[in-house]
Fold this protein.
Amino acid sequence: QKEVEQDPGPLSVPEGAIVSLNCTYSNSAFQYFMWYRQYSRKGPELLMYTYSSGNKEDGRFTAQVDKSSKYISLFIRDSQPSDSATYLCAMSRETSGSRLTFGEGTQLTVNP
Amino acid sequence: EPEVTQTPSHQVTQMGQEVILRCVPISNHLYFYWYRQILGQKVEFLVSFYNNEISEKSEIFDDQFSVERPDGSNFTLKIRSTKLEDSAMYFCASSEFGAYNEQFFGPGTRLTVL
């Protein structure tokens, strides 16, 4: 079983739609959860991070963590064509210095 | 805004040759990392580095790989004898000493082994 599973998509939505991206994981030791955005052939860009369970909101983005279900989500409200990218979930067991374990990424296209 | 930089952006080499990939982490960060991403696959951890020594490495990071912080700003990844399967994007990342493990990535070096 993979440590982190993410539906690779592709996911195509119209502009203005609410997008839901999800990851599941098997290792209950994961404590820190992140979402990255990656444009083609570029480095991952950190979007959101959360610690343990709960919600975090930043503008149009909301990250949710449900540790009891080993499930994390990223919601994008009022999606824009500029949101078109690959979204990667990542998680780690410990704080500073710990390796990130990534999902495979979900490719999102927002159509004007 | 401070960012991680990497050079070169693209490196082409012959199988068996040595390559050195260079990174300048964010200046006040204390943890440094290398990851790689083979085309179409997920980002994979290679190694983390703190206080001038390796703090963690993956099973990918075998004796062909080494890392070094030769001065106060650069962080390098050396591959001693490249193989075809080393062809990938290599990302450097850095993070602060603190409560969260937010890692900031550079733009990557695309390594092509012929």
About this structure: The longest strand of chain B covers residues 88-95. Chain B has a mean pLDDT of 94. The interface with chain A takes residues 4, 30-31, 33, 35, 41-45, 48, 50, 55-56, 58, 89, 91, 95-108, 110 of chain B (CB under 8 Å). The CA atoms of residues 9 and 109 of chain B lie 5 Å apart.
